């Protein structure tokens, strides 16, 4: 992700494919008004006519008889690098924008880890006068190692509270960034984790955000780099 060029070795190790889940137009015909079941059947036929070696695949449909059956399938999502399952009305046309009612994304619960806030930076727009962008660290022995940034998840009242604290507890300034006393623990939620040699911690998180401010947790009890590496082995 973010690469301008992809090495041939990487493409050989992890070939890129297109995984299709809907068909909106075929032969100049607009299929969006048709029911999803009809569009899907035409997509099946279209992909079925493509040579097997072509980099095209169909997003699999899941059959289930009960919600418990579907919950079991949903629980396996991370095994294939998915966020969850998508439910769609079979009779629904394709609607643009964020329409509600026809589709429902049932995500798996996010992964979480407790981390220490070590840097703060002011936000943008209506939050330009508040500190809203933070860097978090976990323990590696007696050292706090930064591993992610997050800027969403707190309430306006909490952002106001942490801003007042940052202004009184700044240790150093690096341009717009302030190093603060490592005194607060936050529960960080995220959708995935992967190895990253670009980061000091060796890991990168997918969609990190602050789930809650752990006023109840001492800094010494924050999670460790070892905990992150265990998550990487299990979910990376």
Compose a concise summary of this entry.
With 236 residues, the protein is an alpha+beta fold.
The average pLDDT score comes to 92
Helical residue percent band: 10-25%
* Gross CATH architecture of the largest domain: Beta Barrel
Largest sheet: 7 strands, antiparallel
Distance separating the two termini: 15 Å
By helix and strand content, what is the structural category?
Answer: alpha+beta
| SSE pattern | HEEEHEHEEEEEHEEEEEEH
Question: What is the highest CATH level, the class of the largest domain?
Answer: Mainly Beta
Give the name of the CATH superfamily of the largest domain: Nucleic acid-binding proteins
Radius of gyration: 23 Å
State the helix count. Answer: 5
Our count of domains comes out at 2
Spatial shape: elongated
Estimated share of beta-strand residues: 25-35%
Number of strands: 15
Low-confidence stretches: none
The CATH topology annotation of the largest domain reads as OB fold (Dihydrolipoamide Acetyltransferase, E2P)
Description:
The chain folds into 2 domains: 8-107, DNA ligase/mRNA capping enzyme (D-amino Acid Aminotransferase, Chain A, domain 1, 2-Layer Sandwich); 111-235, Beta Barrel (OB fold (Dihydrolipoamide Acetyltransferase, E2P)). A hairpin with a 2-residue loop joins β8 and β9 (143-150). 17% of the residues are buried. Strands 7, 8, 9, 10, 11, 12 and 15 form a 7-stranded antiparallel beta sheet that branches. Strands 1-4 form a two-stranded parallel ribbon. Strands 2-3 form a two-stranded antiparallel ribbon. It is of the alpha+beta class and 236 residues long. The radius of gyration is 23 Å and the shape is elongated. The longest helix is centred in the first third of the chain and has 13 residues, at 36-48. It is built from 5 helices and 15 strands.
């Amino acid at each position: 992700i973010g690469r301008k060029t992809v090495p041939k070795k990487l493409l050989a190790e992890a070939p890129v494919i297109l995984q299709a889940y809907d068909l909106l137009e075929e032969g100049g015909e607009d299929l969006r008004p048709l029911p999803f079941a009809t569009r899907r059947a035409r997509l099946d036929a279209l992909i079925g006519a493509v040579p097997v070696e072509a980099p095209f695949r169909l997003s699999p449909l899941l059959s289930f008889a009960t919600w418990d059956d579907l919950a079991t399938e949903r629980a396996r999502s991370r095994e294939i690098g998915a966020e969850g399952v998508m439910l769609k009305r079979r009779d629904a046309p394709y609607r643009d924008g964020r329409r509600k009612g026809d589709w429902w994304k049932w995500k798996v619960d996010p992964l979480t880890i407790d981390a220490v806030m070590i840097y703060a930076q002011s936000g943008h727009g209506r939050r330009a006068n508040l500190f809203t962008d933070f860097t978090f660290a976990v323990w590696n022995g007696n050292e706090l190692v930064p591993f992610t940034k997050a800027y969403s998840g707190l309430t306006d009242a909490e952002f106001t509270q942490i801003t007042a604290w940052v202004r009184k507890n700044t240790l150093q300034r690096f341009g717009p960034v302030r190093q603060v006393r490592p005194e607060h623990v936050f529960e960080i939620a995220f959708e995935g984790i992967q190895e990253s040699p670009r980061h000091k911690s060796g890991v990168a998180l997918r969609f990190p955000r602050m789930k809650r401010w752990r006023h109840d947790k001492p800094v010494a009890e924050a999670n460790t780099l070892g905990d992150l590496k265990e998550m990487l082995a299990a979910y990376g």
